[in-house]
Amino acid sequence: MIRFLAGLAMWVATTATASVTVVDDAGRTVTLPAPAHRIVSLAPNLTDTLFAAGAGAYVVGTSRFTEYPVEARKVPVVGDATMIDLERIVGLKPDIVVVWKSGNAASQVDKLVRLGLPVFYAETTRLADVAPAVRRFGKLAGTEHEAERSARAFEAGLERLRSTYARKRRLKVFYQIWDRPLMTVGRAQIIDDALDLCGGDNVFADLQQAAPAVSREAVLARNPDVILGSGDSGDALESWKHARFLAATRHGNVLSIDAPTLALPSPAILPGVTTLCRTLDQARQRMAR
């Protein structure tokens, strides 16, 4: 009898410690009976964050346009930001479905909830959100140690950049993400945060949308020191070089930047932020000549 009670007590203790409780970014308390070892991720940034948290082996479904890390490209695709394959997701029998709070269609997420699938809302819109997300995913998957290492490495990388560029000359920056219509980054886009860390002032930081449309006249009026676009936007930037009165044009600071992860709010953004900081520093040097 004593052995039975001791065994029962051990089983109860094991069961109690095996459960997982994490508060998500919608303020919901999510409790799982055990760490999640079958995870569906419905946004590329969330998938990258799960891999960084040491939970990559547990990701059984992901979304279109997932590129990072490269291992994630082998995971079956079950949807995108606007449409998800409910039947396929149910068939995967996930322990948790991780969704992007502001990126996945609410109507689609509601269907998952009505089916009784556990849903975890995550939101990373600023650089400071990334490391905490890694830690939360590590707790969900029972990979806290690896998640903590990744989170600390990310925070240390940001701090190195911040300390390097904190006292550099501030530059007014226009970041062009599309030319027809002309679109830029507003306050809600993580690139805005990256610019600030690198010593750049987004000339459209007063706009709250992530990707607002603006007029050419508005850009000319704000007279940026630097005009940036993604690595494949060279031709789209060409027209700014004809506006000779622009500070960016006068100093040769109409630039394409090869930083494919810069818009990805996940640990993969760090190399992109590093490239951005170096690009702005080169622009400072040209202005100082």
UniProtKB/TrEMBL annotation:
Keywords: Signal. The keyword Repressor does not apply. One of its GO terms (biological process) is cellular response to iron ion. Residues 38-284 form the Fe/B12 periplasmic-binding domain. InterPro entries: ABC_Transporter_SBP, ABC_transptr_periplasmic_BD, Vit_B12_bind_prot. This is Cobalamin-binding protein. Residues 1-18 form the signal peptide. NCBIfam families: TroA_like. The keyword Signal applies. It comes from Luteibacter yeojuensis.
